[in-house]
Amino acid sequence: MIEHNELFHKIYQGDRISPEEAPDLFSWDIIDLGKAGDMRRRLAYPKDQVGFIIDRIVNFTNICEAACAFCAFHARANVIQSYELTMDDILGKVEELIAAGGTQVMLQGGLHPDYTLDKYIHMVKTVKNRFPKIYLHSFSPSEIVHISRKNSLPIDDVVKALKEAGLDSVPGASDLLVDRIRAKVSPKKITVDEWREVIYSLYRNGMKSSATMTYGMGETREEKIEHLKIIRDVQDDTGILQAFIPWSFSPAGTRMDNILPATGMDYLKMVAIARIFLDNITYIQAGWLTEGLKLAQIALTMGANDMGGVLMEEVVVKATGIKTSTNDKELVHIIKNAGKIPVQRDSRYHELVSIHK
Ligand code: SF4
Known about the structure:
By secondary structure, the chain is an alpha/beta fold. It has a single domain (10-350), classed as Aldolase class I (TIM Barrel, Alpha-Beta Barrel). The protein is 40% helix and 13% strand. The chain has helices at 6-12, 30-44, 87-99, 117-130, 141-150, 155-165, 179-185, 192-204, 221-238, 264-277, 288-291, 293-299, 328-337; strands at 49-53, 55-59, 104-108, 135-136, 209-215, 241-248, 283-284, 306-309, 341-345, 351-354. A 4-stranded mixed beta sheet has the order 8-1-9-10, with helices on one face. Helix 5 packs across helix 6 (155-165) and helix 5 crosses helix 8 (192-204). The protein starts with 5 loop residues before the first helix and ends with a strand. The mean pLDDT is 95. The site of iron/sulfur cluster (SF4) has 12 residues, from loops. Iron/sulfur cluster binds next to loops.
């Protein structure tokens, strides 16, 4: 049983907790932490609904000049042969998504040495011209910075040009916002400051984003909280982060396969702590892709309140050997069985269909 100390009372009074207080939560009993996470979830989102979206990731190339040590997707990891999709390939995949009732596409690729702004604008315009109702939640802060470097353009100009072409929003793809870890695992990818710059640019351009967290790469508890603090501060300033999505690093197939994967307990603690610390983000997604559907279901009782997307044809995580896939029927079953009401939602977290039976 947790001691009813000052931190306990702050959490249950709904007060903001400090980065100095938060690391203690990792030592809490999992049941106590889960209850606290669920209590803070009810403060942020009192409904019993859990949303999901029918979406598809289209990874248009795995050629990437960053070649991060924690990634099994890029061609030089030698797990997947190098490839580039044609525009016809991309359109065919979007068509399949629409036939399955899908509403959102995530176009994401490696940092291809030859891709410049024109290439990305062409991709966005072609998809939007053919499928005007599809919501493009696409690219990433790393890709935006990559384009800005290739074209020698300010980040604001790149974001503005992509928005004018039809891009709706950009996933936060934050990895771990700790420069000590980034210098080891992804030295050629963006820095924490550059990540922040992209999010502020999206804000200035009236676009939404999200934040993610890849933990389990050798960081300390304090560094996990450092990541959450950056996200909380950015959200205080901008309010554009619609959701937070933590997932554990999957070492297989990467150059870091000597690291033991984070456990199920680590994941559930991370969800609950994120919910308690991030008092300004409404949706926390349960990461069924990396953690499995059954663990994601438990996360719904410890702070999470969204199941994310069905992610038709996800490739990046699958490159690490993870085989989990799902569909809307299975997500509905998982959500209902957790005692919640499943809701198919759109990209702006508006309800499309509420499934009571
Ligand atoms: S994580 Fe992204 S930037 Fe890093 S190697 Fe993989 S595709 Fe490239």
